[in-house]
Amino acid sequence: MRFSVEQIVGMLKQAQVGVPVAEVIRKVGISEQTYYHWKAKYVGLEVDQVRQMAQLQEENLRLKKLVAELTLDKAMLQDVLPPHFASLMGTPRSQKNGKAFAAWIDGGASGGEFSGK
Description:
Blueprint: H1 5-16, H2 21-28, H3 32-42, H4 47-80, H5 83-88, H6 95-105
């Protein structure tokens, strides 16, 4: 059985106001381990705070996946592109070529090796 945030917070509040934990977990039908896991996670929080925390965790997971996908895309592009294009992207493979590109862009003002060719 899946419990809503409201149900979890309500159950924890029952135990906070004096209802014995054994009675609460028996009534709800959960293990003592689940009760203490929820207590560690949600105690002292209001329903809206728990919802906000869950939304932030979901967004954090979404952003982590996005970063992983973009990192993988970049790595694949670096493997496919010829080395001189990879240096234009500023990859660590060719820092010297990256400096040469920067020098070419700013006309040699960055101190890179610019031959003008």
